[in-house]
Amino acid sequence: MSEETAYLISDFFTYLLNGVAQGSIYALIALGYTMVYGIIKLINFAHGEFYMIGAFIGYFLISSGLPLYIALPAAMIGSGLVAVSVERLVYRPIRYAGRIPALITALGTSLFFQYLGQGTIGADPKAFPTAFENTTYQVGDVFISKIQIVIFLVTMVLMTGLWYVVTHTKIGKAMRATSFNMNAAELMGINTNRIVSFTFFVGASLAGAAGVLVGMYYNTVEPMMGLIPGLKAFIAAVLGGIGIIPGAVLGGLTLGIAENMVVGFWISTYRDAVAFAILILILLVKPAGLLGTNRKEKV
Amino acid sequence: MSTILEIKDLNVHYGAIHAIHGINLKVEEGEIVTLIGSNGAGKTTTLHTISGLLKPTSGEIVFKGQPIQGLPAHKIVAQGLAQTPEGRMVFPDLTVGENLEMGAFLRNNKAEIAADLKKMFTLFPRLEERRKQHAGTLSGGEQQMLAIARAYMAKPKLLLLDEPSLGIAPILVQAIFDAIVEINRSGMTVLLVEQNAYAALKIAHRGYVLTTGEIAMQGPSAELISNEEIRKAYLGH
Q: Given pLDDT bands bounded at 50, 70 and 90, which one contains residue A294?
């Protein structure tokens, strides 16, 4: 093996690790997108703001000296509660008003939180405090940082937890029942409004966790930080098949890895273009997403 | 016998359409009562209004002495009234076992739930065989069995069945109606909505005939089944 090939291979693995870290973040945000869509067929464009709110809760708590193992759950709960309030006060009153009003309301809610953040905290980026000393490990010629390892571990734990809740608990099964058909779920005695609240809570708390992780990874937080990752997570959710929980994970990882390969081997400014090209491509070739089946809706 | 369900002067609108015109209906404890009528007569609308999926414009629905009109559906289930949804609506991505578990969503007594599950598996052995299968893989007839068993698992005082014979292989229709009789004999009151008037009248104690949102006729099943007009309109001979 020539020296050049060896470099290419080690570069490949470094970019792959970066991609998996980035993709884990996308996946965590995409899960909330896809779960909310699965339940009430709403594309919640304010979902990126739950991620931003989580990042800021983490920022304030870690700045005040609290350790990550307290700041992270607190950020998750905080984002979750904001999302539950948004659903209750904003989305529920217009639930049966149709898709376009819902979409416009979601965009409005997104702007509301972005400008609320700018008005109260300020528009300038804040330096995220260090939660722990970051070190970079070298395995052969491949580099991996401690923060990346934390991202992998936290993502794995949260996704395993989510999988357990959705497949093994009564409320998780009720969630799947509600996402299939709300009336049928109501006829089981399931309070579907409560399930919708629960779904917003879980989805937003995953996004909140992603916010804290990103704060640590890139060292900055600002009120507009939810915009692009929110859109990317939406692409990830569509890529995997919107409404399908494993699809969000697959879509997030695929997108994260694809972006980092573009950055590493091609031109870094093409990163966002590639993400949107993937969206257009999937909509043209397989609109239901990678894991989606074109199930006929019964009349 | 005491009255378990009484509908008084019920009016329901679907947007601008006046779908149900002041109907009156009674179900006594222990009965099988059937509501028959052709497509679009308002059978499902009536059922959905009873179970809380639709809100009536006016009128009263009294269940076990309490008015229930306008309550959300899940609260009506909690009072002891369960309905199989139109078109079965079994949860396709949940297993047969999980579907039945959802039926018992509001119950907590594990021993009683297990006993009822056993009863349903005795009544519908196919469901036990397919317990771990996703409900979406079942045949239409099996899905109907599951829909009935799932509603039974709520252990309601009154079971509402929406067209259990719809889209089912004729060979299974009899088995499903036999099961309904069996469930009724175990002490559950049944309100059966059917288009298949003959099969429904054969197992019901009394019947109501719904025509474009109004009760056109009512009486003991034996009378309705021999009524000349009904024979012509619904029974085809």
A: low
Q: Does A92 touch chain B (CB under 8 A)?
A: no
Nearest residue, CB atoms, A189 vs list B85, B98, B105 = B105
Model confidence band, residue A8 (pLDDT cutoffs 50, 70, 90):
confident
> Rounded CA gap, A224 and A52, in Å?
8
Answer whether residue A296 is part of any domain.
no
Domain range for A232 is 3-285
0.90 surpassed by complex ipTM:
yes
Span A192-237, pLDDT tens digits = 999 999 999 999 999 999 999 999 999 999 999 999 999 999 999 9
| DSSP class of A93 | G
With an 8 Å Cβ cutoff, are A187 and B78 in contact? no
Count of beta carbons in the 10 Å neighbourhood of residue B104: 23
Count of the separate structural domains present in chain A: 1
Beta strand pairing status for A126-127 and A220-221?
Answer: antiparallel
What's the CATH code of the domain at B177? 3.40.50.300
What's the CA gap between A249 and B219, in Å, rounded? 59
> Could you tell me the CATH number of the domain that includes residue A211?
1.10.3470
Q: Inter-chain contact B101–A183, Cβ cutoff 8 Å? A: no
